[in-house]
Write a structure and sequence with these properties.
The protein is built from ten helices and 18 strands. Residues 1-40 have low confidence and may be disordered. By secondary structure, it is of the alpha/beta class.
Amino acid sequence: MHPWRHDSHGQENPEGAPLVLSVNLAQSRLAIIVDFGREPVVPLAVRFDEYGDIDVLNVMEVARPVPGPGQVLVKVVAAGINPGEASIRKGLLHAVWPATFPSGEGSDLAGVVAEVGPDVTRFGVADEVLGFVHTRGSHAEFVVADVDNLVARPASVRWEVAGSLFVAGTTAYAAVRAVNLVAGDTVVVSGAAGGVGSLAVQLARGRGAKVIGLASEAHHGWLAGHGVVPLVYGEGVAARIRDASGDRVDAFIDTFGGGYVEMAIGLGVAPDRIDTIIDRAAAEKYGTKTDGSAAAATAEVLAKLAGLIAEGSLDVPIAKTYPLTEVRRAYRDLEERHTLGKIVLEP
């Protein structure tokens, strides 16, 4: 450990060293940095040097990033983790998104602007922001972000929610948009309690649709409380869907994979009203849609989602939070695929 290193649970602070505190104010965690005249501690970031399981993930000291034109340096307060990151780290997406080693990871972020690049006027030091990066670098204490990929954090949106919104939120937004829901439609969502599914069911309800959510029984109470008809997945689920829908399913959003595209076709859903964010092979076979985060990855969409949260129209369930140093435990939980909502790192 660096002699001036601190963590989220306590500070090692030799005389004259920078002191970093965490203060809870109105459910917000505000990072306060008091400089006693020496150089800041060397920041930490997640890195991996080869493809593999969670054991390849390490938290390492790295050089403090420097923002360029159109960029700001963000002191990260919260950063969500996502299944796609695990797939990249395992090498499963090497043909599409190869890693360059040593590789960082992470897209989602929320934090406080620590430094601005040349000619940046949209944000200033100490502004609170949420957004994303495409550099696989948000699982870190500091990250450089393009100002075009950031929006102001509404005061009522908790840090852990703001920091986990981008990937799940824009994916859910794109998937719901892709199936063209109108009031009175019936839509089925697989993985309905997951990071994406839990948002997709609410956005679909917002369009006036009847929503059937497939999830483990442990999460049925949350789904029912958000106006969703919950059903247990597994053997006999197609028959349960027919019963719950009155044998009329207009659209299907698959966030889980494992045969749900074929099931949707068997239920009579038109291919252009099926969207899968995970099963590309089935989508190619049946001609369904695959709209996900990339189809809605804009600050405009992110601001709209943050606004819905701020007004109480969208709930982002947080399953667990972990300090950055416990990134392996965080991904172990994620890869079990049984959590309700998002898992978030708090550097």
